[in-house]
Write a structure and sequence with these properties.
The complex is a heterodimer of chains A (456) and B (370).
Chain A (H helix, E strand, L loop, with lengths): L2 H8 L2 E3 L1 H23 L2 H7 L20 H17 L3 H18 L6 H14 L9 H5 L7 E3 L1 H20 L3 H5 L4 H4 L9 H4 L3 H23 L4 H18 L5 H8 L6 H15 L17 H20 L11 H4 L14 E11 L4 E4 L8 H7 L3 H17 L6 E10 L5 E2 L31
Antiparallel strand pairs in A: 1-2, 3-4, 3-5, 5-6
Helix pairs in contact in A: 2-4, 2-14, 2-15, 4-5, 5-6, 6-8, 8-12, 12-13, 13-14
Chain B lengths: L1 H19 L12 H36 L3 H18 L8 H5 L2 H6 L5 H10 L14 H11 L4 H9 L4 H36 L8 H23 L23 H17 L12 H12 L4 H17 L5 H7 L1 H26 L12
Helix pairs in contact in B: 2-3, 2-9, 3-7, 7-9, 8-9, 10-11, 10-15, 11-13, 13-15, 14-15
The chains are: A alpha+beta (456), B mainly alpha (370).
Chain lengths: 456, 370
């Protein structure tokens, strides 16, 4: 695309309805997610009960604020309502992004790709004019009201969705997934009691069909959604695929979020009809928003600023998932560069980490009971991920220093089983983890993976 | 739309035909998981509990007789019943149900070391409530161990606590309370199995964190790791404290039965894994068969064999232990540590390899995945 046609693109407009619909549904789904999280008792269980929390590198300062954590969730839920209404939208979406991301940063034990997706999506939405149409803001401020918005402000959401799907598809192009149907071969037979499907899920060919079908789906769905002729068919696939994953796996709200998000690919006609329905239901005058105005950024600086942030955001999104190439060793084994890169459902890991504390002065040595420090969930996550193991070892060091061992040495005897392989030693048991610094460099103290997984 | 349907069908057919030629092909036989639960309930758990309930009944009778007339003969009978009950307990201790959790069955029957100071205080003050959670280390088999073996160095002196001491009736009453409580708790647990829970257990044959298999496997591994590996061997050997704790041996006052109790527990856990019927040479369906079935799907390592082998390794290492583990810790703790190491290897096989194969999560982690 030439510079001229690119700038023409940046100055082309489309109906604001798709982004308005996206905003409304996004807010509602986020509110449901937050309420569901609270009703499940997870705030208490995941952020208040544990004594120790695992931090992302560089974000050690983000810790759950005790009982105030409820307030953070309340703020997050409240901002979701505001987003949905389009009321004080900019403030609301910034608040949502900050509070949601804060929640995610409190403990990386709960990391999920779809939480990361929500975080970056809400970040992106800060820079989009999602409140010019069908919003309280537009009703109160006629200057803001605009029936048309720049095409790119809708396309960026599509682009983000395409990246998520396509990268998830690329990640499935590995020998475990394609030729062993792993880890589906472990997961699916365990779903024996699902009506109708249960018996089928025991069959090897089903595992392979799911594996290949899943990869094909992820890789092709962006294009099928983008091309007008295949769009309806693609949407049917989206619904089937996500409902199926909802039945088979405990993935919470994510399937619904993806299904609703996929609506953004449709033409504004559909969105206008949706808004019509909502308007009738809530007695809103939709026509009041059809003012034929085009949205313009407050001034050229805000426009340039928004565009460059969004541009930088996408360069980052395209490159960051490939950072695993900077690390030697098998990605699925070391998990260096595994997170934040749309590697979904690729590995089934089970682990066991037994920590040994040695007092070099007295030569006294003993093993740690992990349940004294970690919840079961934390222990499970810790035992298969090296950055967790190291952080926990440092926590133990501090604990035993406080207990009076001046210079404790901490070793770990750990075993990990990956995708149905037999468990094998994971971390070098001879390395005193108190001498290892936390950083992003390759972790040489992880023992090599004695098999090969080919692929991306 | 029709074209896509055609495309979809042909792709699925293609995949189908590819896998059909695969020699390791699909296993057409679905595994009957419900049959595992039936075997566990009908041939292992309920028979073992019934046996244990008979033993606690005899223990109660012996306790009654002893309390009526605390002589040497009555003491010896009571000790025998205590030992028989303690051994039988090893076969039921690992099986949790909502009821056992509610009445804290395992903790009320077998938390050790017993708090002897509190036991004496209870006896002297008389107004104790054994139902309180704070009293778990003042009752059950460990408290009887202390009262029947540990009050003094010889039997005559021990008997004097029940005969001639000024509060001897309080001592007799305490023994009576302990045996009565052991028996009534056991009856409660057995009754729930016999009055409906068995069917609930067997019909809950689905998958997921709250299914019978998932919960039982988690309880089984928890028992193996905490009560067997750590409780009976690791903690006394000082694995978690750095210094050996010979006083923390199970049955420390009678002392000479501690190895036997451990071996009984080891056998019980392996029998459960193999599906071996209680008190019989017959084996039925259990985790070992389930693992074998899943292995036909993925052609992995023969986990069943590895796990059974490791049970045998642990047992053969433990054969060399002194019958009193307290003596063993005090004389040559390294043998305790070696036994621990063998037990530990099976924690990895059970908790990592087996759980992965069965796709059961370590305990109920109630959160979303992606």
């Amino acid at each position: 695309m030439s510079t001229a046609s690119f700038s023409t693109y940046l100055n082309s407009y489309s109906k604001a309805a798709p982004l308005a619909v996206f905003r409304v549904f996004f807010g509602v789904l986020m509110l449901i997610s937050i309420v569901r999280f609270a009703l499940n008792g997870w705030i208490q269980k995941l952020y208040i009960e544990p004594d120790f929390f695992f931090s992302y590198y560089g974000f050690e300062w983000v810790q759950p604020p005790g009982e105030w954590t409820y307030l953070v969730f309340a703020v997050c839920g409240l901002s979701a309502i505001f987003i949905s209404l389009g009321f004080k939208y900019r403030l609301a979406i910034i608040t949502f992004f900050l509070s949601f991301t804060f929640i995610e940063l409190m403990d990386k034990t709960t990391y999920l790709n779809h939480y990361y997706f929500i975080s970056i999506l809400s970040f992106l939405m800060i820079f989009l004019p999602a409140n010019t149409y069908f919003s309280v803001d537009a009703t109160r401020n006629p200057k803001l009201k605009a029936e048309f918005i720049p095409v790119w402000t809708i396309d960026v959401i599509k682009l983000l969705l395409c990246i998520v799907y396509f990268y998830a598809g690329l990640a499935k192009l590995n020998s475990d997934w394609l030729f062993q149907a792993m880890p589906l071969k472990i997961w699916l037979p365990a779903k024996y009691s699902i009506p109708l499907l249960g018996d089928l899920l025991q069959q090897s060919w089903i595992h392979f069909a799911f594996a290949w079908g899943g990869a094909l789906y992820d890789l092709s769905i962006p294009f099928l959604l983008l091309i007008k002729r295949t769009r309806t068919f693609a949407f049917v696939l989206v619904v089937i695929f996500h409902i199926l994953t909802r039945i088979l796996f405990p993935i919470g709200m994510f399937p619904y979020i993806m299904i609703i998000s996929a609506l953004v690919f449709f033409d504004s006609g559909l969105h206008t009809r949706i808004l019509d329905r909502i308007s009738t239901l809530f007695k809103i005058d939709l026509n009041a928003f059809n003012n034929s105005e085009r949205y313009s950024f407050e001034n050229s600086i805000t426009k340039k600023f928004s565009l460059s942030i969004v541009g930088a955001f996408f360069i980052f999104q395209l490159a960051f998932p490939f950072r695993n190439l900077l690390y030697p060793g098998e990605l699925f084994w070391t998990e260096e560069g595994y997170r934040f890169s749309w590697r979904v459902m690729l590995i089934e890991k089970a682990g066991y980490a037994n920590f040994k504390v040695v007092d070099p002065e007295t030569q006294k040595r003993f093993y740690v009971d992990n349940t004294k420090f970690l919840t079961r969930f934390q222990e499970k996550q810790m035992s298969t991920q090296p950055d967790f193991i190291l952080e926990y070892a440092h926590h133990l060091e501090q604990h035993y220093q406080n207990e009076g061992i001046e210079n404790p040495e901490i070793y770990v005897e750990s075993f990990v089983a990956l995708n149905g392989r037999r468990s094998s030693p994971y971390v070098d048991p001879e390395v005193d983890l108190t001498t290892v610094k936390r950083n992003l460099k390759p972790k040489k103290w992880i023992l090599p993976f004695n098999d090969e997984i080919k692929g991306l | 739309m029709k074209r896509y349907l055609l495309l979809f069908l042909s792709v699925s057919l293609l995949i189908l035909s590819c896998t059909e030629t695969n020699p390791s092909g699909p296993n057409p036989d679905d595994f009957d998981r419900k049959a595992i639960l039936e075997n566990w309930a009908d041939n292992i758990i309920i028979p073992a509990l019934t046996d244990f309930a008979e033993k606690t009944e005899s223990l109660k009778t012996a306790g009654n007789n002893f309390a009526e007339d605390p002589n040497q003969q009555a003491l010896e009978t009571l000790r025998d019943e205590w030992k028989a009950g303690y051994l039988a307990l090893q076969h039921v201790s690992m099986f949790e149900t909502p009821k056992t959790m509610e009445v804290r069955f395992r903790n009320n029957l077998n938390i050790y070391p017993v708090d002897t100071t509190e036991v004496k205080e209870n006896i002297e003050q008389g107004d104790y409530n054994l139902n309180l959670p704070s009293k778990i280390d003042q009752q059950g088999f460990p408290a009887l161990d202390y009262l029947l073996y540990g009050l003094a160095d010889n039997d005559a002196e021990i008997l004097s606590f029940y005969n001639s001491a000024e509060n001897s009736s309080d001592y007799r009453n305490y023994v009576l309370d302990l045996v009565t409580r052991i028996d009534s708790l056991t009856d409660i647990v057995l009754n729930t199995w016999n009055s409906g829970y068995r069917d609930d257990f067997v019909t809950n044959s689905g998958n997921g964190a709250n299914s019978s298999i998932d919960m039982m496997v988690n309880d089984f591994i928890f028992y193996y790791e905490k009560n067997l590996r750590a409780g009976k061997i690791g903690i006394p050997a000082g694995v978690f404290s750095g210094t050996p704790l010979p006083q923390n041996v199970e049955g420390v006052y009678s002392s000479e039965f501690s190895k036997e109790l451990f071996l009984e527990s080891l056998t019980a856990t392996q029998n459960f894994f193999k599906g071996k019927h209680f008190n019989s040479e017959t084996t039925g369906l259990s985790l070992s068969d389930y693992l074998d079935f899943l292995n036909t799907i993925k052609n992995g390592t023969d986990l069943t064999q590895l796990i059974n082998q490791q049970f045998e390794e642990s047992r053969s290492k433990a054969q060399n232990l002194n019958s009193s583990l307290t003596d063993q810790v005090e004389t040559d703790n390294s043998l305790m540590l070696q036994t621990y190491d063998e037990l530990q290897k099976n924690v990895i096989l059970l908790k990592v390899d087996m759980l992965q194969a069965l796709n059961i999560n370590v305990d109920y982690v109630d959160a979303d995945g992606d």
